[in-house]
Amino acid sequence: MNIDIEVPEGLNPKLTALGWLVGRWEGTGNGNDHEGNEFQFEQRIEFSHNGGDYLFYAAQSFKLGADGEADGEPLGMESGFWRPLPDASVEVVLANAHGWTEVLVGKIQVTRIDLLSDAVVRTEHADVTHSAGQRLYGKVDGQLMYALDRATTEHELRPHMWAQLKRV
């Protein structure tokens, strides 16, 4: 069995289980907004490290027009920190530009990470009443695949965004 694990130079040994995420990833995906409308988007995600026991994460998505080209309209942006623990669990803290912060917890299974919301805090004027989330990240054939499910105060957990990204 060939497992595609990478350990970038200078990576804190505590981050070895997340080493395969490090880098910049880009691609396109599909989604359903909080009202159930379908959309396509361009995604850019970057995982980086600075020697600490966490990865820094930044993600941006941009709306795609009917022609499949990015129209420059941002759909969202989030940043945060991913911190693996010795028992193969991981804690993720994210801040979203739409007015919420989310803490997710989950398990690392080689090149698959499953995450569930532990807590969500929204600002009074958050664009969406995000209340819970579930995420799956995985490396398949050298690409980063992810799926994000979201619940709001208006609907239960359901698929929100999913994409296939290439390392650039």
UniProtKB/TrEMBL annotation:
<keyword id="KW-0479">Metal-binding</keyword>
<protein>
    <recommendedName>
        <fullName>Peroxynitrite isomerase</fullName>
        <ecNumber>5.99.-.-</ecNumber>
    </recommendedName>
</protein>
<keyword id="KW-0413">Isomerase</keyword>
<comment type="pathway">
    <text>Nitrogen metabolism.</text>
</comment>
<comment type="function">
    <text>Heme-binding protein able to scavenge peroxynitrite and to protect free L-tyrosine against peroxynitrite-mediated nitration, by acting as a peroxynitrite isomerase that converts peroxynitrite to nitrate. Therefore, this protein likely plays a role in peroxynitrite sensing and in the detoxification of reactive nitrogen and oxygen species (RNS and ROS, respectively). Is able to bind nitric oxide (NO) in vitro, but may act as a sensor of peroxynitrite levels in vivo.</text>
</comment>
<feature type="binding site" description="axial binding residue">
    <location>
        <position position="160"/>
    </location>
    <ligand>
        <name>heme b</name>
    </ligand>
</feature>
<feature type="domain" description="THAP4-like heme-binding">
    <location>
        <begin position="15"/>
        <end position="167"/>
    </location>
</feature>
<feature type="short sequence motif" description="GXWXGXG">
    <location>
        <begin position="23"/>
        <end position="29"/>
    </location>
</feature>
<dbReference type="InterPro" id="IPR014878">
    <property type="entry name" value="THAP4-like_heme-bd"/>
</dbReference>
<dbReference type="InterPro" id="IPR045165">
    <property type="entry name" value="Nitrobindin"/>
</dbReference>
<keyword id="KW-0408">Iron</keyword>
<dbReference type="InterPro" id="IPR022939">
    <property type="entry name" value="Nb(III)_bact/plant"/>
</dbReference>
<keyword id="KW-0349">Heme</keyword>
<dbReference type="InterPro" id="IPR012674">
    <property type="entry name" value="Calycin"/>
</dbReference>
<dbReference type="Pfam" id="PF08768">
    <property type="entry name" value="THAP4_heme-bd"/>
</dbReference>
<comment type="similarity">
    <text>Belongs to the nitrobindin family.</text>
</comment>
